[in-house]
């Protein structure tokens, strides 16, 4: 069975469970973020943090990012969104536009979509040649390994959802005048090509999952579950990244951070 097929889409949280678990995860993330930035503990700047959020259209990436940074000071992170490359960006290597927003030591960047578009939409829609997207797997892994070697913690998250749930969310967006702008003709066309995308996603996971930056697959079938899971997976990745560098994972302060 594929990695996507192994994701348990039945996981759910009630509103009360989400609130309780989300607050605990967000407080822990705030603590770790301040440590990485040199604002807590020994006051030494720690590794940079790069969070890549990928997933199906309407899988809840925006809502997950909102919860991820909710407790953080806006000065301590940036959120970067990537869509179709501009004319000028197309004149460069496909990774060029991402280098400009990478976090330095102690910094934090969240990417709403990323360089993995090369082996997904650019592959499926024919924007990249077969030679280009086939070569991209190795180029991406090499770059990620280089970033980790230079001190970056990379968190790669895929939000998965069923075809039926995606359709329900599309229809709700279509009926909501305040959210209909989120639904485009491209979303419907991509949905019609779901089998091709699913095959490309599974190959992407298989060929770019490596110890320095493993894929963390999250069920997005229930938005409450997904929001908590994204924060918890990020916390776990930071703690693992610190340990792998021989750095202490600092305990929470006695009273903990407050919102």
Ordered list of secondary-structure elements with their pairings:
Blueprint: H1 15-36, E1 48-55, H2 61-69, E2 78-81, H3 87-90, H4 96-99, E3 108-112, H5 121-124, H6 130-149, E4 152-160, H7 163-175, H8 185-192, H9 194-208, E5 215-219, H10 223-244
Number of strands: 5
Rg estimate, integer Å = 18 Å
Measured as a percent range, the helix fraction is: 40-55%
Strand order of the largest sheet: 2-3-1-4-5
Oligomer: single chain
Order of helices and strands: HEHEHHEHHEHHHEH
Helix tally? Answer: 10
Structural shape: globular
Strand percentage lies at 5-15%
Could you characterize what this model shows?
The chain is an alpha/beta fold and 259 residues long. The chain contains ten helices and five strands. The model has no long low-confidence stretch (mean pLDDT 94).
Characterize this entry briefly.
The protein is of the alpha/beta class and 259 residues long.
Give keywords.
259 residues, alpha/beta, five-stranded parallel β-sheet, 47% helix
């Amino acid at each position: 069975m594929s990695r996507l097929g192994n994701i348990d889409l039945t996981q759910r949280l009630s509103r009360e469970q989400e609130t309780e678990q989300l607050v605990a995860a967000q407080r822990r993330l705030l603590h770790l973020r301040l440590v990485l930035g040199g604002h807590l503990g020994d006051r030494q700047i720690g590794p940079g943090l790069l969070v890549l959020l990928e997933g199906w259209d309407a899988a809840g990436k925006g809502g997950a990012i909102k919860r991820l940074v909710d407790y953080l000071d806006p000065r301590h992170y940036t959120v970067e969104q990537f869509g179709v490359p501009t004319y000028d960006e197309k004149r460069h290597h496909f990774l060029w536009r991402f280098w400009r927003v990478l976090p330095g030591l102690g910094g934090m960047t969240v990417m709403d979509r990323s360089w993995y578009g090369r082996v997904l939409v650019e592959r499926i829609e024919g924007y990249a040649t077969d030679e280009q997207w086939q070569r991209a797997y190795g180029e991406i892994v090499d770059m990620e390994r280089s970033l980790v070697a230079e001190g970056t913690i990379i968190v790669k998250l895929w939000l998965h959802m069923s075809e039926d749930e995606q359709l329900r969310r599309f229809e709700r967006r279509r009926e909501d005048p305040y959210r209909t702008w989120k639904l485009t003709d491209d979303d419907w066309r991509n949905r019609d090509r779901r089998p091709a995308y699913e095959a490309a996603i599974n190959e992407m996971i298989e060929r770019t999952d490596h110890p320095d930056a493993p894929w963390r697959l999250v069920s997005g079938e229930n938005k409450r579950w997904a929001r908590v899971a994204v924060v918890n997976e990020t916390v776990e990745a930071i703690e693992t990244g610190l340990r792998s560098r021989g750095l202490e994972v600092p305990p929470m302060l006695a009273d903990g951070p407050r919102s």
